[in-house]
């Protein structure tokens, strides 16, 4: 039984200079990464390019890595981050709009209840309205509207109390 996985025997292992050529950076740059602990060499002085790239991306801002092939990936990543931020903002706006619609619908229901109460009270007070002068008519209309609003609120409280109990 081997002290390591058999797949490690088949894994590609590169010298730092080979990894530098693959990344299109200088050998000194890779040496600096190794020296700063951003990538680690194996005991054979070589590195696994997949693991080295994972380590490098974990420990370094991809935008600051001078490897040319990463520039396109960084640009794509930046575009994805911008799109994600925009999507999150739109989600917040959508949630706000849904809450606003829910609020307005409740106000619309309330207005419909007030309208029904107002119509019923207008019919009930039609004779008094016909008999009043202009100033009395306006005052009476205001009173009827106030009573319709109060009646609607009382109805809503009763309905809310029944639903809660």
Task: Outline the structure in words.
With 165 residues, this protein is mainly α. The protein has helices spanning 7-10, 16-23, 27-35, 49-59, 68-124, 126-131, 134-164. The longest helix has 57 residues, at 68-124.
| Integer-rounded radius of gyration | 37 Å
Low-confidence stretches: none
Number of distinct beta strands: 0
Shape: rod-shaped
Order of helices and strands: HHHHHHH
Summarize the main sheet.
Answer: none
Helix/strand/pairing category: mainly alpha
Mean pLDDT: 84
How many individual helices? Answer: 7
Short précis:
The protein has seven helices and no strands. It is mainly alpha-helical and about 160 residues long. It starts with 6 loop residues before the first helix and ends with a helix.
Could you give the topology of this structure?
Elements lengths: L6 H4 L5 H8 L3 H9 L13 H11 L8 H57 L1 H6 L2 H31 L1
Helix pairs in contact: 2-3, 5-7
Task: Label this structure with key terms.
7 helices, rod-shaped, 165 residues, mainly alpha
